[in-house]
Specification:
The chain is an alpha/beta fold. The chain is 33% helix and 18% strand. The chain has helices spanning 25-40, 61-68, 84-97, 131-134, 141-156, 160-174, 188-192, 221-224, 256-267, 284-294, 302-306, 325-328, 337-349, and strands at residues 8-14, 49-51, 74-76, 103-110, 196-198, 201-202, 212-219, 232-242, 276-279, 363-371, 377-386. Strand 5 (196-198) and strand 6 (201-202) form a beta hairpin. Helix 6 crosses helix 10 and helix 9 crosses helix 10 (284-294). The chain is globular. The two termini are 22 Å apart.
Length: 387
């Protein structure tokens, strides 16, 4: 069953906090839920489906439905790291198309800055089966992503300066976001002269760490027709998981090449049709890999694509992450998929900051990569249209 045109994103909300001292994670979930439902013109009693990932406390969806007083008949707790929320929109749209629900609420919340980092679900605290085989090599988030960047440099001649342009573009956008953690515009020299954290990645190649959260409300067409909000229609979505292949590791591509192909096929459009892209930006290399895997440029050409302001709104060929993204704005709960959806919806509604609003933005893409790009990860791609 296709989801094309079967569901709408009616409400969004991004929590303004970046340091949630004294606020429990459950309360953050409830606050973003309230904000997104108010944005849609709906209330908690209208919700009949709830979606969350491993950042929800206690028993996940069960605990949060109880906490918020939701009377739901459909739920989904798919967990693929930071890309979970893009998969949730896909699943919510499919559920609506199948008649299982009409108003689906999706929430994210986290507190890595103020002591709430460990996700609450018990399964994530259990030792994973790969640990005994990989832990002797001391993998960390930093050195795993650095390994991918070094591979791209070896294969294609990509430079640190080209990666730095991604951070430069994000900083140009973040200067207009009053909530962004890093609002100062930086140069290529600022990035490559910042301390090396894992060769070849520098400190400014990395995303920020923030508290906060966000929420999305997905509704059936008949509900969207009743609401006094701009209509953002879900056109297509795809998801995929890539792993270590029993030791046959290939660092040259991500699961995004499969999730994006499925999303474009369902939406009936191609990468050249996209006016704006929200791309997961845990590191600059994450963005560059996604540009190639989604099809915005040929493999190996990502460095040239982003150089000289290729991603800056009003300047470059593909405006990206106009809220400043994870590199400058926020990265609530160390999960960026939710905020990627939110800024794409703002662009389609014409509600992005005037300095970065893309003219005639009628087709946008949100893409997430959760887990670890160099090992096992889940990718989600979502294509949305303004009606």
């Amino acid at each position: 069953m296709s989801i094309k045109g079967k569901a709408f994103i009616a409400g969004i909300y991004e929590h303004p906090t970046r340091k949630a001292e004294g606020i429990p994670i459950a309360q953050l979930h409830a606050e973003v839920a309230k904000g997104a439902l108010q944005d849609a013109g709906l209330g908690l009693r209208d919700v009949d489906a709830y979606y969350c990932a491993g950042d929800a406390p206690g028993l996940g969806g069960l605990s949060m439905a109880d906490y918020m007083g939701l009377d739901v008949r459909h739920s989904d707790t798919t967990e693929t790291g930071g890309s979970s929320y893009i998969l949730h929109v896909n699943h919510a749209a499919a559920a609506i198309a199948a008649g299982k629900c009409k108003v689906a609420l999706i929430t994210l919340a986290g507190k890595p800055r103020t002591g709430g980092a460990p996700p609450g679900r018990p399964p994530m605290a259990v030792q994973p089966p790969d640990l005994p085989f990989e832990s002797p090599f001391k993998p960390t988030v930093l050195n795993i992503y650095a390994m991918v960047a070094r591979r791209h440099m070896h294969d294609h001649g990509t430079t640190a300066e080209q990666l730095a342009w991604i951070k430069v573009a994000a900083s140009h956008h973040a200067q207009h976001n009053p909530h962004a953690m890093l609002r100062d515009v930086v140069t290529v020299e600022d990035v490559v002269n910042s301390p090396v954290v894992a060769d070849p990645l520098h400190r400014l190649d990395c995303c920020v760490v923030s508290d906060g959260g966000g929420a999305v409300v997905v509704v059936a067409p008949e509900i969207a027709a009743q609401l006094k909000r701009p209509k953002v229609r879900v056109m297509g979505a795809g998801e995929a998981i890539k792993h270590m292949g029993g030791g046959q590791v290939d660092l040259s591509y991500s699961a995004g090449q499969w999730s994006a192909a499925a999303a474009f096929a369902e939406a009936g459009v191609k990468p050249a049709d996209i006016k704006y892209a929200s791309l997961y930006d845990s590191f600059t290399i994450t963005v560059l890999m996604q540009l190639e895997d989604i099809g915005f440029c040929a493999r190996g050409q990502g460095g040239r694509f982003v150089a000289d302001g290729g991603l800056i709104s009003g300047v470059g060929k593909l405006p990206f992450n106009t809220d400043g993204g994870g590199l400058c704005n926020n990265h609530p709960g160390n999960r960026g998929g939710m905020t990627k959806i939110l800024e794409a919806v703002r662009q389609l509604r014409g509600e992005a900051h005037a300095a970065v609003q893309v003219k005639n933005c009628d087709l946008a893409l949100a893409h997430g990569t959760g887990g670890y790009l160099g090992t096992r990860h889940g990718s989600g791609t979502l294509i949305m249209e303004r009606m």
